[in-house]
């Protein structure tokens, strides 16, 4: 029986930073290594000032080296130098690796092809890692919330099917923009919470603060940039994609 005072998986309020929060990587291993170097991390993912990486999810799919990204992220998490929330692409990859019937599209086909060239042991480790990820984190005494698709204040710190759905997917309007991306309901426009919310999921050309929230997905896999926010400094650091790896 779980003790009532045992912290829930999303509760990292005791983790106070400083953090480097990294947007959607999508299998772009070379760009991730480049960004970590720009942020001051060593080749084995350690920062001399004790900083910690927080990934906003969608480490996988679409890009050229999902296994490489997972190796690096898993090693950093295991060493205590990073944490990651679950993105919708990890959600679907977990289902595929478990043998469920899922459509191999939106970049999942690349991940499955790349992982098929890896050992069964690595595939099992990758599955266990992705399946362990939770949809959102509350950090720094409640002052920072990380959720892949963002999260309205009333769901911060809650465990429910609705919280999970919002954190992973957001709310679709049923429309698509000029680039072909789904248009999500602009929850940040109505956000008035005290916590800073950092997220990804829907690519933007440039990060823009909206009511204390910031989207860090700057479309690296589509030829944009891979972006991080230094917290609490609020300094944006980004590196360019080597090329457009995936066409929507």
What is shown here, in short?
With 248 residues, the protein is an alpha/beta fold. Helix content is 26%, strand content 20%. The chain has a single domain, classed as Metallo-dependent phosphatases (Purple Acid Phosphatase, chain A, domain 2).
Structure description:
The structure is a single chain. It contains 6 helices and 12 strands. The strands form 3 sheets. It has a 5-stranded mixed β-sheet. Strands 4-3-2-11-12 form a 5-stranded mixed β-sheet. The chain has one domain (about 10-240): Purple Acid Phosphatase, chain A, domain 2. About 40% of the residues are buried. The chain has helices at about 30-40, 65-80, 90-95, 110-115, 120-130, 160-170; strands at about 10, 20, 50-55, 80-85, 135-140, 145, 170-175, 180-185, 195-200, 215, 225-230, 235-240. It is an alpha/beta fold and about 250 residues long.
Number of H- or I-type helical stretches: 6
Major sheet: size, sense and barrel closure? Answer: 5 strands, mixed
Q: Can you give the mean pLDDT?
A: 94
The CATH C-level class name: Alpha Beta
Please bin the fraction of helical residues.
25-40%
Order of helices and strands: EEHEHEHHHEEHEEEEEE
- Taking strands numbered 1, 2, ... along the chain, how are they ordered across the largest sheet? 1-5-6-9-10
Give the helix/strand class.
Answer: alpha/beta
**Superfamily (CATH H level) name:** Metallo-dependent phosphatases
Low-confidence segments: none
Reported by name, the CATH topology is Purple Acid Phosphatase, chain A, domain 2
